């Protein structure tokens, strides 16, 4: 049996992988998307089932007003003492000299929860992980942030003892154990005690095409005692520009019951427009940073080495095969008492102030614009394939152009587009298509906006995403579809495009349903269903 990378397609960045018994778990970053931390489980590393997210209440996660790509950075999942431990970072500033952040700890005896109220740990740096040593001691390992403009902002990897009797750190035990290499930007640390030595896995080079993972080891946890693996880095794609997997680095190591070793890392699959060089620009990653798994073996000097680094990897020999789907197509009639766990909201949970669901409909109350960071009535799910159709049916009765509702393709508050129902002073209810490109807003139809016939209750909307571009369609009966003559560049919804103007480029494209009423009158839209159908790439 083989696993095909990425094993978690679409925005599933910064994997923290562990094994408990015969089951593997991966925790991924979610940034400004709610609920926080994405969890999957698997018996074979091939088929992965999505689990409920642990940070599902504002007690555990309050992100209202967080900047795009703030919020949950690089959570760390571990298991010790009969329970799961989850360290997570809530980042409040993404641009400039400072990275105001708080690291929290929550625990649970069951991966599905409930999770304990959060314990504030510190704010020294992001990408914190909890190391459980074989002698029972625990340590927080983290990137360390330095705001001083005359220092490098990534100030090495810090280790601090954690007191389980008080559930607090011992700040005076903090020491830098590893400075990284001259590639700089050392982050994402995970520490292991293997073969009688301490092995530190850390990312470097920034989470772009220069990304890499390095390994260092030491017989002690003394300051600056870790030496870097020779003939490294451990994994990178900097020197393989033609390979379909790129940006591999930040991740975690796991062993199997049979003694094999695997490494989960973030990865991207960039593409180019037909008229572009494949190396400059190196590509556009619309699916964001995904999760890849590679096989690892130990050399005769007891250093870990990636085996092959190819797209297909041999699954563990003792894997228990399961039937979890590899295609992520789904249909939601909104007839369940709770939203499907594939749905996400921005910064805040879905509550009665945003709308309601059940009995075959989703109601979204119009609130702030899609350019806002406080109150956005939007539910969305990841693009998990390069080619897909998404479709919905909506009822909306606007009476001002400040009211809008429809189907959106969304990256962040500055980069999105949608097809929507709104109001025109001359035509009444109309259909418009608009795009926000680095906060430059364009209405494409303007005076040619499509009039909705009088007496029409519902309008059907569809988007067709075809890797490099995508379009929107509408229907008044759900059978006869009309394409809006606007073809949009999918690259605008990619990490690499956003990076050109904004440092927060860590998520990926989403497709979803939204209602806006910035007039403040809270006009609501009713959605009958949502359908997402993937096609072969």
What this model shows, in words?
The chain has 537 residues and is mainly beta. The protein is built from 1 helix and 42 strands. The strands form 9 sheets. Strands 26, 28, 29, 31, 37, 38, 39, 40 and 42 form a 9-stranded antiparallel beta sheet that branches. A hairpin with an 8-residue loop joins strand 12 and strand 13 (154-163).
How does the SSE layout of this entry go?
Layout: E1 2-4, E2 16-20, E3 23-28, E4 33-34, E5 38-42, E6 49-51, E7 71-80, E8 83-91, E9 101-108, E10 119-122, E11 129-132, E12 138-145, E13 154-163, E14 168-169, E15 175-178, E16 187-194, E17 197-204, E18 212-218, E19 227-228, E20 235-236, E21 251-255, E22 261-267, E23 290-298, E24 304-306, E25 312-314, E26 330-332, E27 345-346, E28 355-358, E29 361-365, E30 377-382, E31 387-395, E32 403-412, E33 415-424, E34 428-437, E35 440-443, E36 450-451, E37 459-466, E38 469-475, E39 482-483, E40 488-489, H1 495-499, E41 510-517, E42 524-534
Antiparallel strand pairs: 1-25, 2-3, 3-5, 4-27, 5-6, 7-8, 8-9, 9-10, 11-12, 12-13, 13-14, 13-15, 16-17, 17-18, 18-19, 18-20, 21-22, 22-23, 23-24, 26-42, 28-29, 29-42, 30-41, 31-37, 31-42, 32-33, 32-41, 33-34, 34-35, 34-36, 37-38, 38-39, 38-40
């Amino acid at each position: 049996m083989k696993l095909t990378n990425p094993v978690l397609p679409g925005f599933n960045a910064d994997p923290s992988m562990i094994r408990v018994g015969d089951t593997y778990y991966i925790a991924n970053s979610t940034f400004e998307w709610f609920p926080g931390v994405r969890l999957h489980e698997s018996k074979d590393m091939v088929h992965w089932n999505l689990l409920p997210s642990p940070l599902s209440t504002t007690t555990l996660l309050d992100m209202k007003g967080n900047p795009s790509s703030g919020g949950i950075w690089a959570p760390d999942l571990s298991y010790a003492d009969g329970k799961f431990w989850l360290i997570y970072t809530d980042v409040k500033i993404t641009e400039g000299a400072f990275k105001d952040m708080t690291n929290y700890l929550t625990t649970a005896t069951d991966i599905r929860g409930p999770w304990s109220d959060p314990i504030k740990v510190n704010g020294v740096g992001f990408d914190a992980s909890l190391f459980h040593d074989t002698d029972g001691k625990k340590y927080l390992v983290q990137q360390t942030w330095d705001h001083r403009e005359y220092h490098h902002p990534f100030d090495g990897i810090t280790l601090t003892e954690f007191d389980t009797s008080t559930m607090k750190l011992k700040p005076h035990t903090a020491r830098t154990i590893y400075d990284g290499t001259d590639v700089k930007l050392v982050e994402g640390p995970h520490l292991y005690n293997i073969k009688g030595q301490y092995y530190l896995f850390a990312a470097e080079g920034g989470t772009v095409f220069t990304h890499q993972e390095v390994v260092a080891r030491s017989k002690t946890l003394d300051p600056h005692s870790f030496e870097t693996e020779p003939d490294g880095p451990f994994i990178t794609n900097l020197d393989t520009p033609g390979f379909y997997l790129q940006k591999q680095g930040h991740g975690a190591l796991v062993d199997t019951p049979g003694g094999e070793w695997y490494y989960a890392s973030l990865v991207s699959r960039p593409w180019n427009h037909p008229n572009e060089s494949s190396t400059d620009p190196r590509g556009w990653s619309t699916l964001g940073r995904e999760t890849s798994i590679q096989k690892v073996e130990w050399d005769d000097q007891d250093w870990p080495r990636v085996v092959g680094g190819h797209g297909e990897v041999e699954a563990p020999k003792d894997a228990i095969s399961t039937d979890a789907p590899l295609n992520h197509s789904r249909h939601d009639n909104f007839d369940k008492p709770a939203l499907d766990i594939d749905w996400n909201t921005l910064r805040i949970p879905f509550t009665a102030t945003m709308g309601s669901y059940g009995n075959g409909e989703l109601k979204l109350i119009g609130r702030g614009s899609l350019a806002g960071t406080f109150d956005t009535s939007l539910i969305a799910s990841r693009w998990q394939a390069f080619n897909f159709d998404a479709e919905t049916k909506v009822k909306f009765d606007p009476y001002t152009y400040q009211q809008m509702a429809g189907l959106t393709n969304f990256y962040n508050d500055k980069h999105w587009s949608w097809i929507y129902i709104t109001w025109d002073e001359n035509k009444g209810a109309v259909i418009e298509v608009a795009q926000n490109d680095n906060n430059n807003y364009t209405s494409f139809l303007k005076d040619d906006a499509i009039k909705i016939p009088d007496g029409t209750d519902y309008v059907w909307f569809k988007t067709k995403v075809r890797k490099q571009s995508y379009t929107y369609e509408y229907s008044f009966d759900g059978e006869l579809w009309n394409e809006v003559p606007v073809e949009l560049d999918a690259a605008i919804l990619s990490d690499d495009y956003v990076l050109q103007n904004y440092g927060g480029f860590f998520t990926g494209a989403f497709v979803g349903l939204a209602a806006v009423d910035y007039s403040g009158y809270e006009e609501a839209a009713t959605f009958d269903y949502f359908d997402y159908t993937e096609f072969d790439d």
